[in-house]
Fold Ribonuclease P protein component.
Amino acid sequence: MKQTFKKDEKLRSRSIIDRLFKRGSKEVQTFYLFPFRVLYFEGTSEARHSTFDDSILSETSDTYQGVPSPLPQVLFSVSKRNFKRAVDRNLIRRRCREAYRLHKPILLQNPEVPYPTSIAFLYLAKEISTYDVIEKAMIKVLRQMAKPN
């Protein structure tokens, strides 16, 4: 699998984002694993098998003949309250995106377990973490989402 993070993997839909952050919603799963709070929609096995088919994906593109990317859409958020300077927020977001980009195949390892369709990673730490800390936390988060319930 290519280690890319293309535009169609970024969560940009306002309606989906609003559904993810709606308080008390039964369809949103959430957990906390320092330094992240993770919100996601649980996918279904049928949706996974209908969208993920290696034979229809080309090596040069993530889409082929209108078939969407088999990967979930992802959002990274860093609090302006904790990090006043945009430079700091961008640094943290960049580190989180890089860790996700390198380790997203963890979500696809077990074909029997449905992976989430939309994920929001909220960075909750009060200080800027090193890339190593963020990477280890991202691996743990992705493994937890890939585990069967």
Q: What stands out?
A: The chain has five helices and four strands. Confidence is low (pLDDT under 50) at residues 45-67.
